[in-house]
Amino acid sequence: MHRVLVSSLVAATPRWLPLADSILRRRRPRCSPLPVLMFDRRAWSKPRKVSRGISVASRKANKQGEYCDESMLSHIMWWKEKMERCRKPSSIQLTQRLVYSNILGLDPNLRNGSLKDGTLNMEILVFKSKFPREVLLCRVGDFYEAIGFDACILVEHAGLNPFGGLRSDSIPKAGCPVVNLRQTLDDLTRCGYSVCIVEEIQGPTQARARKSRFISGHAHPGSPYVFGLAEVDHDVEFPDPMPVVGISHSAKGYCLISVLETMKTYSAEEGLTEEAIVTKLRICRYHHLYLHNSLKNNSSGTSRWGEFGEGGLLWGECSGKSFEWFDGSPIQELLCKVREIYGLDEKTVFRDVTVSLEGRPQPLHLGTATQIGVIPTEGIPSLLRMVLPSNCGGLPSMYIRDLLLNPPSFEVAAAIQEACRLMGNITCSIPEFTCISAAKLVKLLESKEVNHIEFCRIKNVLDEIMLMNRDAELSAILHELLVPASVATGFKVEADMLMNGCSIISQRIAEVISLGVESDQAITSLEYIPKEFFNDMESSWKGRVKRIHAEEEFANVDRAAEALSIAVIEDFMPIISRVKSVVSSNGGLKGEIGYAKEHEAVWFKGKRFIPNVWANTPGEQQIKQLKPAIDSKGRKVGEEWFTTSKVENALARYHEACDNARNKVLELLRGLSSELQDKINILVFCSTLLIIAKALFGHNLCFCYSSKVHFFGIQAVQPTSFWRLTSRKLFELVCRKFVLEI
């Protein structure tokens, strides 16, 4: 009530700000270590039009006011609640230096707390105002930094230490090295936070010029940060997508609305009982939970949810979790909330993938799901471990779990049962069944961050589908699996359309992506230059796309490498020959061509090679041309490293050629991602179909009559006869559309 009153006072007129401040001061608990809200009439009033004669200081104040007006009050109060939950001594000390007059929580009176125009803090404030409830990490050199509220969150949940220790005269600041970004993002998203990452444009800049920055992406629970993945040669772990969930109530019963931002889909399951909706909440990891105001309207006529036992089970499930209330049309309002959370455009369309409950059995009861171990319960063995081999976890296991919890319609159950029967009689070899998360496919393709490894995996999925279609035994199974795949994805795809799409996409990937059989992309190897140098410079872009698509850039690299080799031979080799031929009595001369890995350069490395008396002997002219090697900032590297102008020019040309080739390869990879965005539906369907196929093949092989079976080369031990009978009976009951009751 106090917060509603304060919000009303703030929105009404700036004259009431002192009164709002006094209310919040009385409201604040005595034991709280946090400072009170600091309202500034200038900062919280709405920006007004300025006249031509207004002072520069007033203009800056009004510009700050654009990001500190009353529209940010609810977000600042949200952060205040988060700060009150901090428990670590170091983070609690940081919260004592916060103020609540801006969305960053910065006190301008502290050191480095200025919010003047042109400062890094002001730049961060602009980014923060676009996503006010996300932790913001800003790239600054070799670190990602956070200030204010965000710094406290990093110290509390990511195990990082504050910059500058706990000195009380500077703003809260924390961060992580660039190499630890993924770990930091995992720690924050695991705690339920969304993170906005701001990158700086790399490359040379003018002296005293501030680097340009941009929002490169976001990391959400269930949706990782993918910026830059197209450049690397490794995969990133993709967690299960976490939906935004909304619950409402009507005369039909409870309704569970689930929205997946990554897939741009939503489903609304109506007519659920209270027990069924609690079951779904316990097995679903969600990003945000919203409760509709219709839950408050019970038969007693009061708005006190859970009174007189009605809604008590659901209230007990939600009361200990973080949730927000919402009103209006449940589906449309929840979609608006999702667009707001993820910063999507208002015109973003979400596809309805709701599966009709008509002709389907009721979902599994909470007690049944617990007793058979579908919901993880201490002391009860998991049924999923008994119906699938050990190497069939992850996506296939999740499909079987959903099948048990939500028995399909008769049509789907009949198709699954027929597919299982056919699988038990095959005599041919089966494919590997490459499984890729549909959410991962969509995220990487839409972000244009699919690397060559992931393209090869996508091609494997398509090739395995076509392999099944060419074999008579597997083709019959494939046609049966089209039915459950259509229900799981919401796409109706005919067999001919599927094969045609697979063929076109697979062929296009093969035209662009290097499949590892080409011999024209070997790493450059030249005499006198360390092999490690060429490997570090070229391994990040060679072997990814076919050379024919970037012939000019590849040829320029080859020519630049030859020119570098010639420069090194002409300027360094005479000195090395001289060093080897001269015998010194004072410890020996040293000279070699070395690779300075940190500086990505090939230089001459030597000691005591300068003659005491110049006698025009071989190598003296080259020694006179040497100069100390310097780094990118113009500082001398060391006493042993030397170079020449000719070698430096050749190095610069080689680096430029490598950069151009790398950019061309990225352009081709991202261009292919753009082409395949029109084929996302086919790719999602193929991926889902193979997941179902692997799940059913694994289940079928688990119940062979032999004591041991080999599944994809891995030995799986048969379960006991009791569990074999129980799990098989349960699975058959699901496939026959019976309600499971134990």
Question: Would you mind describing this structure in some detail?
Answer:
The protein has 742 residues and is an alpha+beta fold. Among the domains are: 2-219, 3-Layer(aba) Sandwich (MutS, DNA mismatch repair protein, domain I); 240-352, MutS, connector domain (Nucleotidyltransferase, domain 5); 531-672, no CATH class. The chain is 44% helix and 12% strand. It is built from 26 helices and 17 strands. The strands form 4 sheets. The chain has a 6-stranded mixed beta sheet. The two termini are 48 Å apart. Mean pLDDT is 82; it is low at 1-36, 38-62 and 705-742. This is DNA mismatch repair protein. InterPro entries: DNA_mismatch_repair_MutS-lik_N (IPR007695), DNA_mismatch_repair_MutS_N (IPR016151), MtDNA_mismatch_repair_MutS (IPR053276). GO terms for molecular function: ATP binding; mismatched DNA binding.
